[in-house]
Amino acid sequence: MAGIGEYMINHHKECDEVFARAEEAAGAGDWPRAQTEFEAFAHQMDRHFEIEENLLFPALEEKSGHSGGPTQVMRMEHEQMRTVMHEMRSAMETKDAEQYLGLSETFLVLTQQHNFKEEGILYNMMDQVLADEAPALLAQAESIA
After folding, report:
1. CA nearest 35: which of 79, 93, 99, 80?
2. pLDDT digits over 78-117, tens only?
3. Do 51 and 75 meet the contact criterion of CB atoms below 8 Å apart?
């Protein structure tokens, strides 16, 4: 079975792929497809945030005895990303390709910086600290729709 880090990195890749399809469709002015892909992307991101914020972060904090720190920073960055996603949705609804594509660039930078920290530090920490709990946590993660 994959560890927490591998599982979450794979989910980052899935989110990135749907994000790219939405951006491509918006850039091409294919608004029905862009809307469909954006909603799929938003759903994947919401699921990713839920897995981290409601499952993995609390488990890490409980096991390590430390709340805040890296997980607090990740939660703050999630909020920034949610704000940009909300703005992207508004641009999508008004079919404003220039606005959407500009926001998608902002989102991409935020996400790349965020994922670098998670993939380079936080997920490794989770794999070490939560090794015994990983199978149960990943089974729970799979049940989050």
Report:
1. 93
2. 999 999 999 999 999 999 999 999 999 999 999 999 999 9
3. no
pTM for this one? Answer: 0.93
Dihedral sign for Cα atoms in the order 102, 104, 110, 112: negative
Dihedral angle sign, alpha carbons of residues 35, 37, 41, 47: positive
Distances (CA, A) of 66 to 5, 16, 20, 48: 19, 30, 36, 22
Sorted by where each starts, the structural domains of the chain and their CATH numbers stand as: 4-143 (1.20.120)
**Of 33, 8, 6, which is closest to residue 20 (Cα–Cα)?**
33
The first and second tokens of residue 11, run together, are 């989910």
DSSP track, 78-108? HHHHHHHHHHHHHHHHTT-HHHHHHHHHHHH
Tokens, residue 98 = 């220039």
Distance of CA 57 to the CA centre of its chain: 14
DSSP 144: -
